[in-house]
Design a protein that fits this description.
108 residues, mainly alpha, 4 helices
Amino acid sequence: MSTMIILTDSQIVELNNRIGQIQRLIESAQVIKAGSTPQPAAVATAKPKSTKRRARRTLLNEAKVVEIKQRLASKESATKIAQAFGVHVSTVNNIKYGKNWAHIKVPA
C-alpha cells in the first residue's frame, strides 16, 4: 500500500535543493568499484592566504614632499623630479594635483 504525502510549495523547493546538493556530491565523489583499492585523492598544496597586512614602505616624507612641491612650482618636469626621488612619475603628478599629500603646504 502506498502512502500519500502532501507538501507545501516551500517544502518542495527545499526538497529539490537538497536533491541537487546530493547529485552534485555524487558527481564530484570518487567512484570506487567494490573490491578495488581506492586511489589517493590529490592534495592541494596552495598556501593559505595570510590575514596579516603588510606595512607599506614609504619613500617620501613631509620634507621630501615639500621639496617636490617647490620644484613643481619652479616648473621642473615631473619626470626629472621622480627620477631624483626614486618614485614613479604618477606619484609626483598625484602630489602636483593634490591627490596625495594634499595636507602639506609649501612655504611661500
